[in-house]
Amino acid sequence: MRGFLTLLARNRLALVGLIVIGCVALLALITPLLPLANPNVIDTPNRFQPPFSAGAVLGTDHLGRDLLSRLLWGTRLSLAMGLAAAMIAATIGSAIGIIAGYYGGRTDNVIMRGVDMLMGFPYILLALAIVAALGPGLMNALIAVAAVNVPFFARNIRGITVGIAHKEFVDAARLSGMRNRDIILSEVLPNVLPVIVIAMSTTVGWMILETAGLSFLGLGSQPPQADLGSMLGEARSALITHPHTSIVPGAMILVIVMGINLLGDGVRDALDPRLKSGALSRPMPATTVDRHGPVPTARTDSLLDIVGLRTEFRVRDRVYKAVGGVDLHVEQGECLGIIGESGSGKSVTALSVMGLVASPPGVITGGAVHFDGTDLIGAPYEVLRALRGRRVAYIFQDPLATLHPLYKVGDQLIEAIQTHDPLSKEAARIRAIDLLKSVRIPNAESRIDSYPYEMSGGMRQRVGIAMALANDPDVIIADEPTTALDVTVQAQILSVLSDLRRERGLAIIFITHDFGVVGQLCDRVAVMYAGQIVEEGPTEAVLRNPHHPYTSRLIDCVPTLGGGQRKLAAIPGLPPVVDRLPVGCAFAERCDKADPTCRADAIALMPTGAGRKTRCLFPETKQERIV
Amino acid sequence: MSEALKLTDLSKSFAVGKRLFGPPKAMVHAVQPLDLTVTTGETLGIVGESGCGKSTLAKMLVGLLPPTTGQIEIEGAVLDNADPARFGKRIQYVFQDPISSLNPRKTIRQIMEVPLRRLHHMDKATRAARIREIFAAVNLREEFLDRYPHEFSGGQAQRIGIARALAAQARILILDEPVSALDVSVQAQVLNLLADLKEAFGLTYLFISHDLAVVEAVSDRIAVLYFGAIVEVGSAREIFANARHPYTALLAASAPEVGRPIVAPETAATELPDPLSPPLGCAFNERCGFATDRCRAEKPALTTDETGRAFACFNPLATTR
Amino acid sequence: MTGYILKRLVSAIPVLLGISVIVFLIMAMIPGDPATAILGSYATPENVEKLNRDLGLDQGLVPRYFIWLGHMVQGDFGRSFALNRPVLDEVLDRFGATLILAGTSFVLCSLLGVAAGVVSAARQYGWADKAITFVVLVGISIPSFFLGMMMILIFAVQLRWFPVSGMWPIYGDRTLWVLLDHLFMPALALAVVATGVIARLARSAMLEVLRQDFIRTARAKGVREGRVIWRHALRAAMVSIIPVLGIQAGFVLSGAVYIEMVFQWPGVGRMLVDAILKRDILLVQGGVVFIAACYVMFNIMVDVAQAMLDPRIKT
């Protein structure tokens, strides 16, 4: 609750809304206590008094009644009506939605068909029909507005409930012996409640408008009692001659509804967990660069040379140093593996190369990426864009999410080709078919017109590879391309990649968490831990004879096929969180060899043998491995 | 050796294209009728790729899904109506995604108390003592009890999930991909914990996973599932090293392994058959290098050979011994 | 696609029946003697008796419904006692005016709303986003009838740019230009609220889509940012925008009732409100069913548009 208020207060607009609504609500509450004229006393001689006239601060209406008094009493009525309608609609609608969503099946089907039918009316028709049947009047208008909004709540809450009812914790509650009624009340409802509150806070304003609208039409509150809508309705005939009688109630509705909407948005932002973390922001076309100090020069004449790369995520007041100074290089035709656990910074490193780290919150804060003589970090967007897909291409993890769901795979391939090559559509299509053939998609000529959802995971990933190959790039960065696939499919994809690489002399940066895959595919491997490379060297040497204790322990953790039933080695503890990295070695806490010197200062990546580097003061020796 | 779990003719079909009234448009057989026994104290691994029906099977075993045909016998008692509350005391489930299996709006203590109160009707003091005991067993600190699920890492949350399953005092645990959401360094911790718990409490495990090496490391016996049916069952030590069913062999050959060259183990069809129009004979025939006309016409039954290995294949691979 | 359209048309039949049931039941809630309610309190006993016979009002609820439905299917919506003419004739006369007003508004709010939402999302937190967000906030907070009144005050009375009200001038030619002149203010006033709602939704749908992996793929291919936004992202966002356009059409139609009152527009909305105040039950009943049926047909068009956009919807 406290956190909620803090979040709400942080949103300045919501705070304004809260203050406005607070003032209006307070005024409405104390209206009976205020020294106001009777709102319903008719004084025709004094009709249409302008504002600021004696005895009537806001003037008088067409019957000479005091406008200020009528305004406050009307506000009171309008607020009460809107709130009551919202409460009724939310309660009934949510109950219907939860029941339909939780029980599903036929119950759901029948209820939702009914709801759809109610939503088949433009809302006012239903309200008008109800008022027509019950007769004009305040209560009837209230019933009509509430009834009209029930289906909106029902449908909204049902959707959320369906999602929650299929969550694993509901199954777990069932297995713990809970019955449906208890599950609805104690598992589902608490998780749906924020959504109900959000839906309510964003619709109260709307309900006030609707009740005011019915009154405006003369179907709501009946004279002499007046809410803001009927005040406006009565003033309409004098709009041109005495506009103030219209402007006063109209402006009040505007102020109230605007205040409620501001507050409602604030409530939504504070309650929605996704918005809470500030996540709902759009990634920019290229990662923001905020680089200080001198730009490191290329150390080698490699094709791609990453020097001292630092990328961090700035979320609110926290800074997550995802990549903390990475040096890597890839040669023409070489396959470099980057291996690490989740959060080690391997993917962020890869995405930083072409400025594809989502930003906000990602920021590249240091280092350089030298590609063919150009530093890509801080390069103008147009330079970066021209290289993307043309010289450096990516293959991503989940092929269903990474292909556009609404375009045919062929069109996506053709787009990739035409982006960098002004070919005719026909020529591009022929090339696209060739590409599909090169990744061994059977019946490429017909498959090119398939949508991604019509393909299996393996086929989709082949399309992903074909797309990366579209412009004959020099480097392909593959970010866990087989992680989402089944083993048999993974083997096929790896074989495709491996063959293409040899045929075309491609350089590949292959990111994975699987030693087996690295061992089969890569020439060199870099092991990452907590945003840094802890070990680098020729794959076979590193895997057979790891120098860093982390690499060594990690290899021991992974069971390999053919070992039979056994106890596995485990690394105690958890990887550090990258917003609170220790001063010295990040692995020291989990390492059995660590001593105070490990924790004292940052440790450099030092050469340890032919083509090998290790970030450790006490590298493993051969003897230790054998023991 | 008593039977912890005995499945007879168990199957599950789902209706596709349900209508408000009348029969559905088609049926998908997620799990084909199968018989399986798990001995008390054993760990049976179940391996298969996505879509093979392993999760559907698991959900039936704990009563979350009613079976279409067949019966489930747990420790001698037949449970024929899907009622998780009745199953719960005998068999429990550990979920794949540890975080989403914990209600985000409840504290760990509230979550842990439910099975104790609902299934065992314990009073407050007994519950507190029992929770303390279980938390000690899974190496979790008691101060965690008053925290909310989002404060935990995947590995810790999975321990909590295991603790909840233990609280029900079931002697059989269905472990549905319990470590596949975890990082390798944490995965080993959880697997070792499971091994310790099994010994300490005399548990029986059904370990479901897509990771052959993990299954092999923890299981006594392994059943290989393909397209909703068991294609091979054998001892963990033997089954991959010495596969009889071509699919098992394909799986074993596909697992990436350091130092082994990449080979694409398939040539012809590379995809699973369409569940809406399943092939006539063996479901694997389109991907199989040994398929004959018989395979395309007739479904092979699961048969056990003299060594105790069971496989469903007309042309099994030769034993290497 | 033809199959899908046919399927949707067939599935509209139960919806239409349901709507007729709902309207019938609501009207059955009218307290007192239905014939008197329909004919007004000055009806002659003969007329009351005749109506009772025609509508089967002396029978139970179910037979009454089917008699009513039977009449309606044959195009007989009953007779308005206040106007003394067939309900259907009156509704059809008025419907054209509403269609012109609501249709223009709908096109206006769809185009403006989607464009504003896309620009707002593409320039998130930039000045354009802030300006649009503010205008949208005012738009969704202002009652359309109040907005209409203020527009009359400013643009018609003060500035004399547009006529105060009505669809046609009392004297003079009925040309397209004259119609547009009369249409501009009411259509705009009516469009404002829906524009706000659509713009908000389009903005959040776009933000959602822009975070998806396939947008990163498009960028990784080197696709120009304009194309990423207007083709890749907008196309995907339209999947969640289009159903809302359908719902907003209902809101535009609803808002038309207020706007027709404010601008003296001779549409069905004003007719309905007058009918309610005069307790002209059959006119209300007939008008509601007719408009609801049109709205159902419109929503089928929305579904078809959705299916054309999203191949994943089974055809």
From TrEMBL, chain A:
<dbReference type="InterPro" id="IPR025966">
    <property type="entry name" value="OppC_N"/>
</dbReference>
<dbReference type="GO" id="GO:0015833">
    <property type="term" value="P:peptide transport"/>
</dbReference>
<dbReference type="Pfam" id="PF00528">
    <property type="entry name" value="BPD_transp_1"/>
</dbReference>
<keyword id="KW-0547">Nucleotide-binding</keyword>
<dbReference type="InterPro" id="IPR027417">
    <property type="entry name" value="P-loop_NTPase"/>
</dbReference>
<dbReference type="Pfam" id="PF12911">
    <property type="entry name" value="OppC_N"/>
</dbReference>
<keyword id="KW-0472">Membrane</keyword>
<dbReference type="InterPro" id="IPR003593">
    <property type="entry name" value="AAA+_ATPase"/>
</dbReference>
<dbReference type="InterPro" id="IPR003439">
    <property type="entry name" value="ABC_transporter-like_ATP-bd"/>
</dbReference>
<dbReference type="InterPro" id="IPR035906">
    <property type="entry name" value="MetI-like_sf"/>
</dbReference>
<dbReference type="Pfam" id="PF08352">
    <property type="entry name" value="oligo_HPY"/>
</dbReference>
<feature type="domain" description="ABC transmembrane type-1">
    <location>
        <begin position="75"/>
        <end position="264"/>
    </location>
</feature>
<keyword id="KW-1003">Cell membrane</keyword>
<keyword id="KW-0067">ATP-binding</keyword>
<dbReference type="GO" id="GO:0055085">
    <property type="term" value="P:transmembrane transport"/>
</dbReference>
From TrEMBL, chain B:
<dbReference type="InterPro" id="IPR003439">
    <property type="entry name" value="ABC_transporter-like_ATP-bd"/>
</dbReference>
<dbReference type="InterPro" id="IPR003593">
    <property type="entry name" value="AAA+_ATPase"/>
</dbReference>
<protein>
    <submittedName>
        <fullName>Peptide/nickel transport system ATP-binding protein</fullName>
    </submittedName>
</protein>
<dbReference type="GO" id="GO:0015833">
    <property type="term" value="P:peptide transport"/>
</dbReference>
<keyword id="KW-0067">ATP-binding</keyword>
<dbReference type="GO" id="GO:0016887">
    <property type="term" value="F:ATP hydrolysis activity"/>
</dbReference>
<dbReference type="InterPro" id="IPR013563">
    <property type="entry name" value="Oligopep_ABC_C"/>
</dbReference>
<feature type="domain" description="ABC transporter">
    <location>
        <begin position="5"/>
        <end position="252"/>
    </location>
</feature>
<keyword id="KW-0547">Nucleotide-binding</keyword>
<dbReference type="InterPro" id="IPR050319">
    <property type="entry name" value="ABC_transp_ATP-bind"/>
</dbReference>
<dbReference type="Pfam" id="PF00005">
    <property type="entry name" value="ABC_tran"/>
</dbReference>
<comment type="similarity">
    <text>Belongs to the ABC transporter superfamily.</text>
</comment>
<dbReference type="Pfam" id="PF08352">
    <property type="entry name" value="oligo_HPY"/>
</dbReference>
<keyword id="KW-0813">Transport</keyword>
<dbReference type="InterPro" id="IPR017871">
    <property type="entry name" value="ABC_transporter-like_CS"/>
</dbReference>
From TrEMBL, chain C:
<keyword id="KW-0812">Transmembrane</keyword>
<feature type="transmembrane region" description="Helical">
    <location>
        <begin position="236"/>
        <end position="261"/>
    </location>
</feature>
<keyword id="KW-0472">Membrane</keyword>
<keyword id="KW-1133">Transmembrane helix</keyword>
<protein>
    <submittedName>
        <fullName>Peptide/nickel transport system permease protein</fullName>
    </submittedName>
</protein>
<keyword id="KW-1003">Cell membrane</keyword>
<feature type="domain" description="ABC transmembrane type-1">
    <location>
        <begin position="95"/>
        <end position="301"/>
    </location>
</feature>
<feature type="transmembrane region" description="Helical">
    <location>
        <begin position="281"/>
        <end position="302"/>
    </location>
</feature>
<dbReference type="Pfam" id="PF00528">
    <property type="entry name" value="BPD_transp_1"/>
</dbReference>
<keyword id="KW-0813">Transport</keyword>
<dbReference type="InterPro" id="IPR045621">
    <property type="entry name" value="BPD_transp_1_N"/>
</dbReference>
<dbReference type="Pfam" id="PF19300">
    <property type="entry name" value="BPD_transp_1_N"/>
</dbReference>
<dbReference type="GO" id="GO:0005886">
    <property type="term" value="C:plasma membrane"/>
</dbReference>
<feature type="transmembrane region" description="Helical">
    <location>
        <begin position="176"/>
        <end position="202"/>
    </location>
</feature>
<feature type="transmembrane region" description="Helical">
    <location>
        <begin position="131"/>
        <end position="156"/>
    </location>
</feature>
